[in-house]
Structures are given as C-alpha cells and as structure tokens.
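Appendix C. Worked example: YkoF family thiamine/hydroxymethylpyrimidine-binding protein
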Amino acid sequence: MSTETREHLTEEATSEQLGIGMRFSLHPHCDNFVEVILGALDDAASAGLTEHLTIETDDVSTYVGTGTEPAEQRLVAYLAAVVAAASRRSNGGHVVAHVLLSRGCPGEATCDLTVTGLPRPAPVEIEPTGVRAAAQWSLYPLLDGGDGDHMTHIEDAIAAAQRRGVAASPAHYATKLSGDVAEVLATVADAWAGVGTRVPHVVSHVTVSVGSPSTREG
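Step 2, the predicted output written as structure tokens:
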C-alpha cells in the first residue's frame, strides 16, 4: 500500500466496514457428532453469545460476522463457548475446530479500505472454560505493501504469544499454542487484530484440538 493511501486512511473504520468475521467448522470425533454439534451451538445461543452476530451455516462451514463492537470479543467468546460445549457434550472426547479469521477482506461486500483508518480494538478478555486445547496457528498479513514487512508482523505476533505464555513451540508452517481454549483463541485474535492496526487485510488460520488421544497434555 502506498504512502499516499496510508495517509488517506484517516477515519477509524468500523467492524462492518472492514468486514471482520470468521468461518469455522466443528468436528467431534464421536458417533453422536450431530447431537454434539447442534447441542454446542444451542448452548452458546442460550448463553446469549449469538447477540449481534450474523451466523450462516452451509454444508462446509459456518460464517460468523458482526458489525457491532467489540467485534473480536464477540467472535472469540462465541467460538470458545462452542468448542468448550462440544468438548463437554462429548464427555471430554476428541473435538477439532478449523477456524479462519479475516479482517479487511476486499472480497467482503461491506469492506471499504479507501476512506477509513484502522481501528485499535481492546484485548479480548474471556473467562477460562476449563477445557485445555492445543492449536496450530498461522498468521497472514496480506496487504503490507509487498516490502517484506510481513515477517516482522508475524514474528512480533509470535513473540507476544510467547510472552503471554500460550505459544508452546514452532512447527512447520505454524506455531503451536497450548492452554485453556479461551486463552488460546484470545491470543490468536489479539495477534490478528494487533497486526490489523498496521495492515488493512489480515487473515489468521487456526486448528484447535481438545481431548486428542495422541497427547492429552496438549
């Protein structure tokens, strides 16, 4: 993005203008997976966590978007509740969630990066769920001007996760995170939103695993 364009971004964008949202799919590894998924979604709705969210499910994944602040808080609170509820409803069995977070996507119908600045959202704060998770997390700054700064943004985000005590170790093409599912997802969202204060279009992908038979310790 040119200096001229950066200077033009003066007014702070809203979540609706930036097209902030996510897609996720939930995979409980149990025979009654349908009941677990639907029950987890109902639990999150009963807790009032669907308020101000647009939720659209198809045969591949569920889109969740919001134009109401604080967008990051609303998205993560909902997602953490769904994953934790699925874990409980499967009696601590293996549950996997694939999550794609996007902000400032030029493909969003409501996205407008030409007349608005980049917001600085408050950190996500969610009560622990009591469900421990392991995750593999990747971060993609997609509109950083093409000057090679993307690795700086990624390294800064990983360092922040390590200071938070959630980043466990590097992995091929990802960083492994470990901790309560709420803290893992908050770490991902804060890094994604943090890079979004400097880069208009940022995507983050995370695969969350709870109750894995391969390593119960995460």
